[in-house]
Amino acid sequence: MTTTAQNEPVPATAERRPRRTKTILGWAVIVALVLIAAFVAIRVSATPPGEHGALDPEGRDDTGALALAEILRDQGVEVDVRRSRVEARAAVDERTTLVMSNPYTLTDGALETLIEPADRVVFLSTSTHLLNTLRIGENAPGTRSAVDAACDVPEFADVGTIRADRLFAPAGDVEGCFGDAESAAVLVDDRSGDRHVVVEGTRLFSNAYLAENGNAALALALLGQTERVVWYVPSFGDSDIEGKSIDTLGSLTPVWVTPAILLLLLAGVAAAIWRGQRFGPLVAETLPVTVRASETMHGRARLTARAADAAHAAEALRDGAQRRLARRLGLAVHSGAEEVADAASDRLRIPRGSLQTLLAGPLPTDDAALVDLARRLDELEAAVERSTRRPTDHSTEAEGTT
User: Which pLDDT does position 136 carry in this prediction?
Assistant: First the structure.
């Protein structure tokens, strides 16, 4: 140790070096971790998707349909998986159900050729183009809570309830099940003598959700009516669509971009370390200014009004009304729109569909629709508040009478 003229001890240089060495070593570890994280992120982003896609009968992940295929086999149904449309068409006979997800890789002509010999075809997922091609219906807005079949198709009688993520408006003479005449989750078309069934089952029939509600029963009702199922899996390798491949970001990026990004990342880390050491460690300090919540609320409201963003304002109104309704109805503050709508409809004795549309339907696009939405939300909150206070008021009047 050395001393100054005032006899105050000053740490020697030999004692300061280990502490500085530890600091440098710590920053080196941080830089190494950042570089490793960047490398892993680049590798993950460049990794191709899994071998099996959604609703693949051999897919074992959450989006696959291996569980459904195994249930069919356990019920004595032969599941014949085909990945070639030519082989699938040749395998179809009168005791066969042809099943596939949305055949987005086929042209209309190839799809017609594929389903021509089949008496029973089930589409486990669909698109707007497929609906138009089959002339079976069109998309319908809104969502539904768990519903039963409510149609005349006998195999759906014991399915129970399902909660569909997508609804369709059936065309004329097309049977709509699990909904009503205006919107249904399953469309059954028997107009040509053959049966074509369309359902959006990407979530319903996946491995992760097959055990929920009546999803498995619906799958058996759709695919278990024949002794054999030919399951065609669409893929780009079996596509008949001819055209130039679409350029992707990876194909358009020069080879030197990745090393340049890593170099810039390293330079940014080094600059952060250099600038950070100039000011020393951070010091916690209480801010001298307190901003009231009301000022923040009014400021955000003025910004929304200036931007004429009716959808964003409506979303904020819905969020606030939903949280207040949940608190009034004794639900959790973060309850979903469906739970709040169900509880409010039970309390007010009004249809659930109107409340679900009000709390989770399409957002308004203009000021007039926004004002109407705000008025309806305010009326709903007032009605719920009156219904929650009514028993207390009656008890108070009874006490006064006594």
Answer: 92
Listed range (12-26, 65-79, 102-116) with the worst mean pLDDT:
12-26
What pLDDT does residue 47 have?
44
User: Measured between alpha carbons, how far is 105 from 128 in angstroms, rounded to an integer?
Assistant: 14
What is the per-residue pLDDT for 285?
67
Q: Using N-to-C axis directions, what is the helix angle for 367-401 and 352-360, rounded to 10°?
A: 130
Range with the poorest average pLDDT among 12-21, 202-211, 308-317, 384-393:
12-21
Instruction: For 122-163, write each residue's pLDDT tens digit.
Output: 999 999 999 999 999 999 887 778 888 889 888 998 898 998
Side-chain half-sphere CA neighbours of 373 within 13 A: 27
* Cβ contacts of 63 within 8 Å, gap of 6 or more: 53, 54, 55, 202, 206, 207, 208
State how far the Cα of 85 lies from the Cα of 113, in Å rounded to an integer: 9
Q: What is the mean pLDDT of residues 383-399?
A: 61
* Predicted pLDDT of residue 48: 45
Q: DSSP 3-state assignment of 128? A: helix
Asked if 181 contacts 169 with a C-beta cutoff of 8 angstroms, the reply is: no
Enter the tokens of residue 105. Answer: 């890789």
Nearest to 376 by CA among 334, 303, 314: 314
- Angle 13-46/257-279 helices, nearest 10 degrees? 150
Q: What is the pLDDT of residue 97?
A: 94
Count of residues making up the chain: 402
**What is the chain's mean pLDDT, rounded?**
81
Closest CA to 208 of 304, 79, 316, 66: 66
* Strand (E) or helix (H) holding 274: helix 257-279
Number of neighbours of residue 85 by Cβ within 10 angstroms: 23
φ/ψ region of 26 (left if φ > 0, alpha if ψ in -120 to 50, else beta) reads alpha
Helix (H) and strand (E) counts in the chain = 13, 11
For residue 156, the cross-strand partners are none
> Tokens 């195999």 belong to which residue?
155
User: Structure tokens of 41?
Assistant: 């992120």
Alpha helix stretches (DSSP H) within 1-127: 13-46, 66-74, 85-91, 108-115
